[in-house]
Amino acid sequence: MKISWIIIFLISVEVGWLYNRMIGLKKRAEGAWSDVDVQLKRRHDLIPSLVTCVQGYMQHERGTLTEVTLARQSAQGVHRVEEKGVSEQNLTQNLKSLILLSERYPELKANTTFLSLQEKLTDTENLIQNARRYYNAVVRDYNTLMGQFPHLIIAKIFHFQPLEFFELEEASEANAQKVNLL
Predict the structure, then answer these.
(1) Minimal CA–CA distance to 46: which of 100, 95, 104, 101?
(2) Which CATH number characterizes residue 82's domain?
(3) Which residues of the chain have pLDDT under 50?
(4) CB under 8 Å to 138, separation ≥6 — which residues?
(5) Nearest 5°: CA angle at 178, between 176 and 182?
(6) Which one, of 140, 167, 170, 175, lies nearest residue 86 by Cα?
(7) 19: domain range?
(8) pTM, 2 dp
């Protein structure tokens, strides 16, 4: 009788430990996503200033400015990780187009406000990439743990779900590194 109580106790301790480990990783992933979201919001907040700054110089490029503004609004309205990746990719492409168009306007390139905004945008893009990499690493660890015995049993019992990676196209990562926004 005493041995059965010891076995029940040990199993309970093991289940509790496994459950807490999975909860801990899930909370780390939530915290990491929060960091990504903060950086995305920071980028979203820079866009109105950037659009306002270039409007006076790029009067013939209204379509591009409108596309950037609409892409920002679309990205702000999305909450699921997978959808956020698609909308942020669209925003990145529109920002890239805006920056490339600015090359045609020497007065704009000399504007200190524009240069400052470009620098802030470049810094923010780097912070987004770092936060995204950390988030995806934590998600990978969590999802891997969910597939390993005995964690997969605990995951099924307590209805843990796999988390989604925050993916951007490889091209956008290359552009973020190659296109010097300064």
Answers:
(1) 95
(2) 1.20.1440.20
(3) 171-182
(4) 25, 28, 29, 32
(5) 80
(6) 167
(7) 2-178
(8) 0.81
